[in-house]
Amino acid sequence: MDFRGTYKGGGGPDKTILLSAAKHNKASMNVLVTYLRSPNDDEFDIHLKAAKLGINYVDVYDKSFLDLKCLLNICKLIKEHNISILHSHDDKTLLYGWLLKLFNKHITIMHTCHSHSCYERDDFKSKASYYKNILREKIQIFLMKRYCKPIITVSKDTRNRLINNGISSRDIEVLHNGIDEQNWRSDNGVPTLKQEFNVPSDGYIVGTVARITYDKDLPTFYETARLVSKQIKHVIFVIVGDGFGDELARARSEVIKLGLDDIVKFTGHRNDLKDVYTSFDAFLLTSHTEGLPNTVLEAMAMHVPVIATSVGGVPELVIHEKTGYLSCRGDSKNLAKQIVSLLKNEEKRKQFADSSGKRIEDYFSFNRRVKKMEWYYERFEDVS
């Protein structure tokens, strides 16, 4: 059972989970993808994506922090589908997996950690929020220690963070995210955003695909856009994605207050991501923290040069001055300098684009990832 909780259209881990289920060897294993679903989430569309891929899928309503009815429903699924391994992917399923093990002694519980954010006191507006985050991290580590080993992480950086927080280095292994490079190809998209935003033939789009959260550090994105627009004519910065609640509306209001609404544009949630990436002349990631971002994988596979903050597993993807540029967190001046340099040099953009595609082919093939995950499942099957 691939076990995950999400919101609306999901994010990077969801793409990995759904595509993995579609590509696993069905002759040797039966994967049931199970999602926790909020009854108030009217924009949830994971089930539609699962149906399109033809995978064995079910979602279960989860109404509260600890929904006993939800847990009972999952227990029924474990029995009905003869589940031997439960594979959790986020904080909620990490907790539920541990509880489900108490009632289903025969199952093996395993966990993939897609990100383990480490924040400082200055990242929080109040002491209460800061200490709440510390408590959350301690609970995560407590639960991971009770799962079958190894814990899988999607980047070396995430592995190091878990080690620093008390997980033994012997108990963690890295399995990088991958991407279906045959699907994410630069010739599979149409630059629709160029038309939507009336970008002239000599104009540029610098874009990002991201859920609107604190982690993505949009204030740095805005300031970078402001600095670049002073030096490059006909450039706009596009943010593709939504938030958990009213974040999109608040972000739009903030951009208007900054007087940047002619430069920074929002599209909300989009399903035509191949067209989106094809529209970008460069991809900008300004995050405070990351695991191994699927959006960067997608951009590189689509031959879009990436300018990003050097956080999390990003440096494991982007090779500075070969496939793109890396900069320090929050350094809008340097990010802007890198973007201006890239937009003014067509040859450099093509060089980075070609190198990005080659790096994905050589090191981040999704098929290789699926085979390695099947090996883990066989390994954990021997434990159950």
Helix fraction bin: 40-55%
Give the overall average pLDDT: 93
Strand order of the largest sheet: 3-2-1-4-5-6-7
The CATH topology label of the largest domain is: Rossmann fold
Share of residues in strands: 15-25%
What count of domains describes the coordinates? 2
**CATH class group of the largest domain:** Alpha Beta
Head-to-tail CA distance between termini? 13 Å
Instruction: List segments where confidence is low: pLDDT < 50 over at least 5 consecutive residues.
Output: none
Assign the CATH superfamily of the largest domain: Glycogen Phosphorylase B
Structural class: alpha/beta
Number of strands: 13
How would you describe this structure to a colleague?
With 384 residues, this protein is of the alpha/beta class. Strand 2, helix 2 and strand 3 form a beta-alpha-beta unit. The mean pLDDT is 93. The longest helix is centred in the middle third of the chain and has 18 residues. The chain contains 15 helices and 13 strands. It is 43% helix and 15% strand. The protein has a 7-stranded parallel beta sheet with strand order 3-2-1-4-5-6-7, with helices on both faces. A 6-stranded parallel beta sheet has the order 10-9-8-11-12-13, sandwiched between helices. It has 2 domains: 194 residues, Glycogen Phosphorylase B (Rossmann fold, 3-Layer(aba) Sandwich), CATH 3.40.50; 178 residues, Glycogen Phosphorylase B (Rossmann fold, 3-Layer(aba) Sandwich), CATH 3.40.50.
